[in-house]
Amino acid sequence: xxxxxxxxxxxxxxxxxxxxxxxxxxxxxxxxxxxxxxxxxxxxxxxxxxxxxxxxxxxxxxxxxxxxxxxxxxxxxxxxxxxxxxxxxxxxxxxxxxxxxxxxxxxxxxxxxxxxxxxxxxxxxxxxxxxxxxxxxxxxxxxxxxxxxxxxxxxxxxxxxxxxxxxxxxxxxxxxxxxxxxxxxxxxxxxxxxxxxxxxxxxxxxxxxxxxxx
Length: 214
Ligand code: ADP
Prior knowledge:
Order of helices and strands: HHHHHHHHHHH
Helix content: 55-70%
Bound molecules: adenosine-5'-diphosphate
């Protein structure tokens, strides 16, 4: 399995190293290390966790145009690295459930390994890195950072969430501030609390400066 992990790592590094919207190799490696840190406390199959963390973005719909095309890429990367059918099935199932799909959209995540990788991915969306990444994403997509005339929306379907092109600040209300209460493990809940508080502080300062009060 170590050989499969190493080969997937090489492949993912080559495909994602310069990705400009916060889904680059450093994001992948961070999710991998954070997932393993959470697993130290929470348990789970570390090899499956590491492999799912490494492969979780390589077939993302944002990079490939559609979910179906993305899934085929993930499968190909795992297969070429020599993963068994059983391992591929587990890893692909984790990856299919990992993404946020809208504030009001619920996705079941029944395995401990899946819950851990999802927590690690979501922690990267929070705190100082989360803020930086969100504005990097908005910039790469040519969005305004803030428009007080465009209200935030709690999306009720994944299509509506995927189609949204709202200003970057709205993303805090549409996703980022909701994540703290949706962490799966106690270990991630603890880390998320500090990162959430920092984002709230950031927003407070942002509005004070925007209104020329600070
Ligand atoms: P997931 O990792 O759950 O699939 P996404 O890939 O949709 O979530 O989002 C990953 C990150 O990309 C977010 O945490 C955020 O930083 C950024 N992002 C996604 N959508 C937006 C958006 N509409 N505006 C600003 N940033 C976004």
